[in-house]
């Protein structure tokens, strides 16, 4: 039981039931009921994963996510209102790695947590051996260390942003549809409404100094998807 999870949820009964279920599945769970105190706990304790509800007393989940993201390297899974696209996109824009709509079945939550945790680097991956990397001009991305750098400057990426960037770079020069990306990253197909990929692409473009009005590094191919350029990295 080495994986540490902080559950930020103000519904005491729901939090206890969720924590009990996750604990039975070999996860170490702590509960925090308030947003304004959750921020300090996340930064001080640095749990492997934070389950962060949107509606919280003191400070909402969006504010907490935005405040801790620059200093927290773990995974943030946001709990949003069902079918509230605005909540989902805003959470991703604040730096969340993924979201799941409430109410959620415990087994579904567990499956999503396990999928997110599998993306985290293991201690063995923290060494200096860079066994798997790609270089495009001044851009370098390493799967072994899960880092990316542009012109020698390390790019601050969330877990989900790195996964998307690695997937796009792995298919440089080829168009990947939203369905391709969602299937690979989340195991679901594109329903025509999910905007999570678009939100992450927008964040990646900013971090890669790509012109949002005329992007050349991660291009939009209208009606088809996104293309990671092999060039334009000088």
Word description of this protein:
This protein has 234 residues and is α/β, with parallel strands linked by helices. The protein is 37% helix and 22% strand. The protein is built from eight helices and twelve strands. The chain has helices at 12-24, 35-45, 61-68, 85-93, 106-117, 159-170, 178-186, 196-207; strands at residues 4-8, 28-32, 49-53, 75-81, 98-102, 133-136, 139-142, 147-150, 153-154, 175-176, 218-221, 225-228. A five-stranded parallel beta sheet has the order 2-1-3-4-5, sandwiched between helices. Helix 4 links the parallel strand 4 (75-81) and strand 5 (98-102). The protein starts with a strand and ends in a 6-residue tail after the last strand.
Quaternary: single chain
Spell out the helices and strands N to C. EHEHEHEHEHEEEEHEHHEE
Distance linking N and C termini: 45 Å
Largest sheet: 5 strands, parallel
Report low-confidence residues grouped into runs of 5 or more. Answer: 123-131
Number of helices: 8
Strand arrangement across the biggest beta sheet: 2-1-3-4-5
What is the tally of beta strands?
12
Strand content: 15-25%
Which word captures the global form?
elongated
User: Any idea what the radius of gyration is?
Assistant: 18 Å
Average pLDDT reading = 86
Which structural class best describes the helix and strand composition?
alpha/beta
Helical residue percent band: 25-40%
Topology:
Blueprint: E1 4-8, H1 12-24, E2 28-32, H2 35-45, E3 49-53, H3 61-68, E4 75-81, H4 85-93, E5 98-102, H5 106-117, E6 133-136, E7 139-142, E8 147-150, E9 153-154, H6 159-170, E10 175-176, H7 178-186, H8 196-207, E11 218-221, E12 225-228
Parallel strand pairs: 1-2, 1-3, 3-4, 4-5
Antiparallel strand pairs: 6-7, 7-8, 8-9, 10-12, 11-12
Helix pairs in contact: 2-3, 4-8, 6-8
